[in-house]
Specification:
Layout: H1 26-33, H2 53-61, E1 76-78, E2 88-91, H3 96-104, E3 109-112, H4 131-142, E4 146-149, H5 152-156, H6 161-170, E5 183-190, H7 191-201, E6 208-210, E7 216-223, H8 229-239, E8 243-246, H9 254-264, E9 269-272, H10 275-293, E10 299-301
Parallel strand pairs: 2-3, 2-10, 3-4, 7-8, 8-9
Antiparallel strand pairs: 1-4, 5-7, 6-9
Helix pairs in contact: 6-10
Length: 311
């Protein structure tokens, strides 16, 4: 069960994950995130020293407390550990579009945060006869591209890599206090202004929300990713924030709770950022980590972007 010590508990089935935020590391990690790295094919050059997919994975895992985990979804989805890396792409989802961009960049290693084959464990037996799955697999195999999911491990980094990425992009790291758990005490602003700020900083076209745009907001419960309705509702009930900001919801859970809370008279608003928008900065964090530890291999973050359009 998640507690308020876990600032960004993304999925309820990973209860071991704890975001122990060490503010003394914020400056160093912020500098890491802002390190420039090329996004053009011309910036990918021949690696002087052979580095394999396995060596990069092992290096990252070696920095995780308690790793390697006996049970994890962080496995290779394509390719092999022995592939010599020509370039790396980090992203939320290894979509066909992202794969094609990697090919154009001569990058043969994709580090994705979420599943490649449409389910949490990337099970593929049920997709054996599916033409979309076959097309994607063929594309990866033809270009000898390795895809590694880095989900459990990056969330277990201390501080949590995804959480650090989001806080850094929002310029909110200074508002995090370990003793307050998921609570951020922001400068007082209106709900409408807060929504516009989030849209701008996270490059979101539109968000779903519940509340009066003129409502005053200061106490925020911030839970990116897909923590689940029970965790989101429990936090809102216990902390009584002005606004609950989440990544993904099931509409019949958290949204209905907030609607009833408002009908009861509570001053509780809800902002739904979307799963991708709320966690994509974690993949930018990963690109920065690669730049620091494997400078000879060019790394670039390619946003997966939202799969859904808005009318």
């Amino acid at each position: 069960m998640h507690t308020t010590k876990n600032l960004f508990p993304i999925n309820e089935d990973h209860s071991r994950r704890k975001f122990i935020f060490n503010l003394s590391k914020v400056a160093a990690v912020t500098a890491l995130l802002t390190t420039p790295f090329g996004g053009r094919a011309a910036s990918f050059f021949e690696v002087q020293d052979d580095v394999t997919v396995g060596q990069i994975i092992d290096k990252f895992i070696s920095q995780i407390p308690g790793a390697p985990f006996p049970k994890t979804v962080d496995t290779l989805k394509a390719g092999s550990l022995d592939i010599k890396v020509t370039g790396i792409v980090t992203t939320m989802f290894a979509t066909i579009e992202v794969i094609k961009q990697a090919i154009a960049l001569n990058a043969n290693f994709i580090i994705a945060h979420e599943p490649t084959f449409y389910n949490h464990a990337d099970e593929t037996d049920w997709l054996a006869g599916d033409d979309v799955y076959q097309y994607k697999t063929k594309l990866l195999n033809e270009h000898n591209i390795a895809v590694w999911r880095n989900h459990d491990y990056i969330h277990s980094l201390k501080p949590d890599g995804v959480g650090m990425g989001v806080l850094t992009q929002l310029n909110w790291a200074a508002y995090y206090k370990p003793q307050l758990g998921n609570v951020l005490m922001l400068p007082t602003t209106s709900l409408g202004a807060l929504i516009e700020y989030l849209k701008t900083k996270l490059s979101i076209n539109k968000v779903r929300y519940i509340g009066n745009p003129t409502q005053s907001c200061q106490k925020v419960v911030f839970i990116p990713g897909a923590a689940g309705g029970r965790m989101q509702i429990t936090q809102a009930s216990k902390i009584k924030p002005d606004v609950l900001i989440v990544g993904e919801i099931q509409e019949w859970e958290t949204a209905e709770y907030v609607r009833d809370a408002q009908a009861k008279g509570d001053n509780l608003a809800l902002i739904v950022l979307g799963h991708i928008a709320s966690e994509e900065p974690g993949s930018e964090f990963m690109a920065g980590w690669l730049k620091q530890h494997f400078a000879a291999v060019k790394s670039v973050h390619i946003p997966a972007k939202n799969s859904l359009a808005f009318m």
